[in-house]
Amino acid sequence: MQARFNNTLKTAFLILSLSLLSNVCEAQKHVNWKQLFNGKDLNDWQIKIRHHELNDNFNNTFQVKNGNIQVRYDQYTKFDEQFGHLFYKEPFSSYLIGVEYRFVGDQVNEGPGWAYRNSGIMIHGQDPATMTIDQDFPNSIEVQLLGGNGKDKRSTANLCTPGTQYEKDGKTIKQHCTNSTSKTYHGDQWTRVEVLVLKDSLIVHYVNGEEVMRYTKPQLDPINGAVEGELLKSGSISLQSESHPVDFRKVEIVDLEKYAAKPKKLEKVIAKLMTEKRVARQQ
Asked: Is the keyword Signal in the record (predicted)?
């Protein structure tokens, strides 16, 4: 009797183990990071710099060297509010994006004080072809990237809203920038920021594997006196040039769109993704 019970228990345990393993394997095979930056060139990207036509890479602002996307101002005499954005060639809707960046060198002459060690990942953005020649920022949700000055607290993966707004805790937030709960990253160290985007339902910011902000209902600024604007369910992804040199060594994405209508599978895949704490390695 005892032997039969032990065999039954072993069988049940084996079935449970195989079931759990199957769920993990199912999630694993769906977790595929696509490299948006190939480490060699900007062939998959479009450039829009204020006061210049689409794909005019004014003064070689965006370049690839040493396997990094480099934002540089060596050929500028002054910044002159020529904010730039490097757009990936296609839009996304539901996804997890990971970006590793570092600030280097000195800010260009006449760069705004607030733009010191300042860049950003723009998500749910407008098509760069629809931007006016003098438009400074695409209408988008900005995941603001900031570096410390060596002494003061300065969070990164903050939220700014050029032409947009959002909801948090059931309230519509109209202020332009809101700080995250991240720690400060001083110096030229590499930092990894990830953003989970689920259409217009949820956006979550992570820094080196730690959640630092979440909110819902990203939307365009309202018009005609309305309280809410048009909800943003998809859009462009771009990287900023805001007057301080910055390197991007990795821009990668897990496209979750095929699970958007399958909440249980989506939940499994996201759970698997977030079990790993991805931290930028220093070189």
From this structure: yes
